[in-house]
Amino acid sequence: MEWSSLNLSLKLAFWTCVILLPLSVLVGRALAWNSFRGKAFVEALVAVPLVLPPTVLGYYLILSFGNASSIGRFYEAITGHSLVFTFDGLLLASIIFNLPFAIQPMQRAFEAVPMNVREAAWCSGMSHWVTFWKIELPLAWTGMLSALVLTFAHTLGEFGVVLMMGGNIPEETRTLSIAIYDRVQMFDYDSASVMSAVLLSLSVLAITFVYVLGYRRRRHNA
Amino acid sequence: MLRPLLLAMIMLLTTLWSSLNHAESTSANSMPVIAAASDLSYALVKVSNQFTNETGQRVRISFGSSGNLKRLIEQGAPFELFMSADEDYVFQLAKQGLTADQGQVYALGRLALFAPNNSTLAKHLSFAALPGLLTEGEVRKFAIANPRHAPYGRAAREALINLKLWQQIEPSLVFGENASQTTLFAASGSTQGAIIPHSLALTPSVSEKGAFHLIDENLHNPLRQRMVLLKDASETAQQFYVYLQTAAAREIMREYGFTVSGEM
């Protein structure tokens, strides 16, 4: 068992959730209640990491954030270290490949908030901001929570992009899923089986949690 | 109804976060990362453990195929020492000004023909038996490392070409990402044979799973394994580089079937 890898995976999942939460609330809410030209295209862009091979994503990320790219050089000039092969780069990649997992459930959650409830709130003199805090968020909360749990679990499970962007560096970019790959290649089945069991149980727990939330929301709405 | 859930979530995340910070503060970030060819998987772990025992310093190791590791270094990966299974990659990096100097040859690698216990090849372990076993379908899959970026794969291909076996065996080949994965393919019984590094064939967890025999070194270009410190390598990395050239480290390398300098 490589504790440093488990820590790294948890840290990555935690920060991905922290950054994606406000972003996906904004985007999910906007997509839920607005229709505009090109909305389908925006939704497609959000969903595309679901179907894209991780190698394609990894390739573009290396191209756009690598040390030869302007973004990569700019980042290195400011922080003193590169984006690829570091935790920062991994976090950025993780945010991108988790967009559908965070935004889609948020969008569904906000879509389920009835328009007339919001109108009633406005008629009662609540500002848009107060309506958001007191009405929309409490109603959409279960959806938001399942978005977060899915994002968290999906980050723990990501492999391809992390391998391409991260370069398997111990305690920097060797997440749990990479450590398992590494151990299997070294015929260290003992460590691999412990780490795999950890990931399996975390994933089953997370998905069960999401389903329980789903039942709860449906009961609530009924 | 939802408040307790929210509260529980926040508490969970806070505990998680504090435990993470704790773990981070105890892990020294000053430990240099070594990029090492995967034929060193076991030997180098042993050397680095001994290094830690003697000096109290630690290094982190990332194994892969030499070609992939070289690519990572070109892309800016924060490695401080590169232990290649082949010297060309080191010279190419040196030409680009990414290394401290031209480095040192630390070992000569040898190839082994390996067959898992369940394979008929294990009973008649020789290249002479291969054509017949391939025709009879006893050897359906044969593993070598990817010759494009793994030196052991390239040497394996050279040996098979020199043995005039390449054309017949090519349709049955599967390619490992690196020498270590190639060994896994055969040791797990997924392929009926493989050409792997002698160093991995000698590793107990591999040798108990099959039989191997050393391949004549005249069948391929020598695998001159060269290591080099990269630009701005830390003091610990430099110490480890020196340690690798001591008698103690060489003894371990010899145990794993490498020919070490002095004998080359």
Which features characterize this protein?
heterodimer; A: 222 residues; mainly alpha; 11 helices; B: alpha/beta; D-Maltodextrin-Binding Protein, domain 2; 2 domains
Short summary:
Chain A is mainly alpha-helical. Helices cover 81% and strands 0% of the residues of chain A. In chain A, α1 runs parallel beside α5, α2 (39-51) packs across α6 (99-111) and α10 packs antiparallel against α11 (189-221).
Task: Itemize the secondary structure elements and their pairings.
The complex is a heterodimer of chains A (222) and B (264).
Chain A lengths: L2 H31 L5 H13 L2 H12 L4 H10 L7 H11 L1 H13 L3 H9 L4 H30 L2 H7 L9 H10 L3 H33 L1
Helix pairs in contact in A: 1-5, 1-6, 1-8, 1-10, 2-6, 3-9, 5-9, 6-8, 7-8, 8-11, 10-11
Chain B lengths: L2 H24 L6 E5 L3 H15 L4 E5 L1 H9 L6 E3 L3 H9 L8 E6 L1 E6 L3 H4 L6 H6 L6 E4 L5 H12 L3 H4 L3 E4 L2 H9 L5 E5 H4 L2 H4 L2 E5 L8 E7 L5 H9 L3 H9 L9
Parallel strand pairs in B: 1-2, 1-3, 6-7, 6-8
Antiparallel strand pairs in B: 3-10, 4-10, 5-8, 5-9
Could you name the CATH class of the largest domain in chain B?
Alpha Beta
Number of spatially distinct domains of chain A: 1
CATH top level label of chain A: Mainly Alpha
Number of strands of chain B: 10
Question: Architecture of chain A in CATH?
Answer: Orthogonal Bundle
* Intertermini distance of chain A: 46 Å
Write the CATH architecture name of the largest domain in chain B. 3-Layer(aba) Sandwich
Number of helices of chain A: 11
Q: How would you describe the overall organization of this protein?
A:
The complex is a heterodimer of chains A (222) and B (264). Chain A has 222 residues and is an all-alpha fold. Chain A has helices spanning 3-33, 39-51, 54-65, 70-79, 87-97, 99-111, 115-123, 128-157, 160-166, 176-185, 189-221. Chain A has a single domain, classed as Orthogonal Bundle (MetI-like fold). The termini of chain A are far apart. In chain B, helix 2 links the parallel strand 1 (33-37) and strand 2 (60-64). With 264 residues, chain B is α/β, with parallel strands linked by helices. In chain B, the strands form 2 sheets. Chain B has a 5-stranded mixed β-sheet with strand order 2-1-3-10-4. The chains are: A mainly alpha (222), B alpha/beta (264). The interface between A and B is medium-sized, with 33 and 37 residues.
